[in-house]
Design brief:
Pathway: Carbohydrate metabolism; pentose and glucuronate interconversion. By secondary structure, the protein is of the alpha/beta class. The chain is built from nine helices and 15 strands.
Length: 323
Amino acid sequence: MYLGTQGQPVTDDELKVLSQLGVNHISSDPPGDWTSWDRHAFAAHKEKLAGYGIELDMSLMPLGSRSAFDNDSGHVFLGESKERDEEIDQLCHLIEEAGAAGVRALRYNITILGHLRTEPQVGRGGAQLSSFDYSKLDQTLGEFEGGAADADEMWERIDYFLSKVVPVAEENKVQIACHPMDPGIGNRLYRGVARVMGTVDGLKKFISMHESEYHGLNFCQGTVSEMLENPGEEIFDVIRYFGERKKIFNVHFRNIKGGFLNFTEVFPDEGDIDMLKAIQVYKEIGYEYMLMPDHVPGLAGENARRVGFAYCYGYINAALQTV
């Protein structure tokens, strides 16, 4: 278990800063359009990072956290179509190329609505905090433009996707790590769409489908905490459940205040989750990959994002040393 990060550091200085802060593992992508990411592009990216003492731990399949219409592989979870099958074939090829370059894992999202948030809150010193209050979610929007999808339909689409990609991941020894739907809203529909990957039971069902040691989770501790009525008490057993089954391939290590349907994302030291206890649980279950910051509060001043992430790197590193 070790400190990591995610993103696209593009300058030499950014890479130097990561190395200087002790961040020696990263989830990052080669430059250029994802359709050009072959084994040579991955190898070149790995070599560049290695020059700064940074290891490419994982990369990203073009299934991000935004709406399907804002993703490069936007048809994958929109139901049956020629475009869906073509994009899944491209993703399978990407897995093969990543495997040939020795990339450990690829992370991705299953979502067609993207992440949902309401008005941000103000935190300590005026920091801007991403927040969600279901009672304030805009319910006037019509059915999702890509069509409604109830729970049965969503699970059918997920099953189809997994049936295609899991055998390829297994053959090429590449872990594929899925991020939960953020936030979970239980069994409710929003815009006619079921967010089936937004409950702990949904995640349990997901990892049982097309069982493979290469099929698991990009375990966003913050998102999973948002699914729980009492995350400060419940999150540790959830970590144990997925960790003991070796289904956690990456951890987004962030804290929240609140819980199911009403939460605010905060600095790691001020939320409802005992983050040191969480790291102790990851150690207990033998978790062996990255802990990385995610959704860092918005700060004032220059280089706000880098400063916020640097604060979280220091927090995670100190916590790791403690355990």
